[in-house]
Specification:
three-stranded antiparallel beta sheet, 23% strand, first zn-finger domain of poly(adp-ribose) polymerase-1, two-stranded antiparallel ribbon, 5 strands, alpha+beta, 35% helix
Length: 126
Amino acid sequence: MECSCNAGSCYDDGDITGYSERMLKAGKQHICPKCGKAIEKGEYFMFCTAFAPESIYNSKMCLDCYAIVAEFFKDGYMSGSVHDDLADYLYHTWREDLPSNCISKLPNGAKAVVCDILQEFQEVAT
């Protein structure tokens, strides 16, 4: 059964002509541009590249952000804060159509991000 979670695409450039991704082991510390978390030397991360006619976009994502992107942004994602965009998507769906089947597939760190966002909504709603 296909997961129904899809917040859409978050590409900056509508002219993306190609995309590649690969898992790498950090040789030095990097900062995930999606959440600001440090990717420490020796940790794995996803190196994603999108190609446009006159530009190449690279991103080094922590595995938690990558899991969120893979589950909730199936049409692509290259810019912005994954947590903010996920919160915006969940805000519009959490009461009627909570994507629990998608959340259950996430690794623990990514699940914690989603649960924290949902907890904030619950606290505001009460």
